[in-house]
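Extended Data, panel c. Modelled sequence:
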Amino acid sequence: MNGLINRAIACFVRDSYGVPVWEEVMARLGIDESAFEPLMPCEPGVTARLVEAVAARFSRSSADLLEDLGTYLVAQPRSEAIRRLLRFGGVDFAEFLESLEDLPDRARLAMSELDLPAISLYMQGAGVFLVEMARADGAGLRFGPVLLGMLRAMADDYGALVLLDYRGCDATREIIEVHLLDAAFADGRDFDLASGRAAP
């Protein structure tokens, strides 16, 4: 799975900051190109070093960088397949949230090498949810900030007004608090559920 993660990070850095920046990071780390092959095994430590190096290059925290990665994975046109996978979760943001527990299984069906941590959703009150994601320390990064960025991008995609708060992690889980203030705050991006394609 880490080859897939590393490939996503590479695309994110190239598209967001430019190829020269990516080449600079690669030269500094001396990482073999095989680390970016989706089907090749790769040590989680390589992913951790990669995230830390890119974050340090821009004087940012790893969590902030990973949140941007999550947003990129949804909003970037080349990642339309990921957006489709997520949008099939529901016709509005509330239904999408309710489908999050099924996301690891759906992702595994789409790509067997992708083994996402388990996700649990708890409703705390009207429009207030806790999203808990099992820690995956063996993956070389925390998935919680990535999911936070994806949730932020999906709220925009649905046209929902939300407040998101990464509450941190404990020994077993990462926690995100979601306040759904208005499910129809703005026009969302067009999407045809029947075909799974963005509508023209």
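The chain has eight helices and four strands. This feature is highlighted in the accompanying rendering.
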